[in-house]
């Protein structure tokens, strides 16, 4: 008799390959054949994004060292890494549903009555196997695996975001160092103008008001220089937090801004489906939601369960394990919900609605990714023209300042003209610096928008 049940179990197990629910296909999204903003954009310098570390394109060893540290010590990255471990554990949990559950037991019951007392010793082994006839467990594993892949993509997206933020803060820090040096030059030039004005005043050529104005200009430049130091400290603190260390234990020595805006080949929009980790995450969420439809549909079919048990029972512990004391049972159980007030249909409808929502989120993520690339391409293209204008403006302002100072020495113009020329020169140099920083920031943003050096092959499918 037991042989028949074994054959029945084997036949039932062979039907596991039957899974209800729709087969998964990645949703289609129309992203166009090329980027509109790439037309007319002329990269200024040669460069290449390395496979493993995109930030090395800027050729800054300090930035390289910081980027290597942030991937291992950032708390946000650590949290995302733990989420991946949790998701992988849930996959193993779902796969456990393919296997039977075995339970061992041992008991000793003592019963006392008026007639006397008796002791019953028992030991047994029971098993339950839920056969995945309709593919419910298989769909649960499929959904858990897709969720784990989504978590892995989310980890990659977090790393990319944190590293892009670090690069942005680092370039802002170096721009602040450049601004401090620029203001130091301005203070030196203002002090030289003050010295000239004081000399002219001693000889009775200039008025005392010119001396006061020159001193005021020096103090104003010194005040700006101090404020630049404050902004630098805030940026150092921000970088320390990204690295996961207290600001009091972290410092970055001042250095010039040497990075140049690199060439970032944009490729084609469809590549974002494989290059962007957030897009891959959204797509894996769709796959997980699709699997849940199968789980919900499997609930409409009867559940087949094999159960078996073997127990030894005896009043004498020493003779417990004997064939004569063995009681065993083995057989199938079929269960089908007859009425649940529309619960199964509601669950299936909810799973379908969740899938539709995940598809909409996926398409929105793809469109937002394309928009970000278009925005960054437009920013780089426009800032490239602005940078040329800014450089020309600085040259003209410096020339105008030198001419105005010579005219003041000759007594042709008042000192107010010198102050105006100095202010214009400083403003033009700050503008040029800001344009350069904005171009570097936009290049980092574009690299992040293109997925950095990540590819969907990095997650197991």
Describe it for me?
The protein is an alpha+beta fold and 461 residues long. The chain has a single domain, classed as Outer membrane efflux proteins (OEP) (Up-down Bundle). It has 9 helices and 4 strands. It has a 4-stranded antiparallel beta sheet. Helix 4 runs antiparallel to helix 7. The longest helix is centred in the middle third of the chain and has 67 residues. The two termini are 44 Å apart.
SSE topology sketch:
Elements: H1 2-14, H2 61-73, H3 75-95, E1 101-113, E2 116-131, H4 136-202, H5 208-242, H6 272-275, H7 277-298, E3 303-314, E4 326-335, H8 343-409, H9 415-449
Helix pairs in contact: 2-4, 3-4, 4-5, 4-7, 4-9, 7-8, 8-9
Helix content percent band: 55-70%
From the alpha carbons, calculate the radius of gyration and give it in angstroms: 37 Å
**Annotation, overall tally of beta strands:** 4
Silhouette: elongated
Might you state the CATH topology name? Outer membrane efflux proteins (OEP)
Question: Which stretches are poorly predicted, pLDDT < 50 over at least 5 residues?
Answer: 5-16, 41-51
Element order: H for helix, E for strand: HHHEEHHHHEEHH
The top level CATH class name: Mainly Alpha
Percent of residues in beta strands? 5-15%
Describe the biggest sheet? 4 strands, antiparallel
Number of domains: 1
Spatial strand arrangement across the major sheet: 1-2-3-4
Structural class computed from helices and strand pairing: alpha+beta
Mean pLDDT: 87
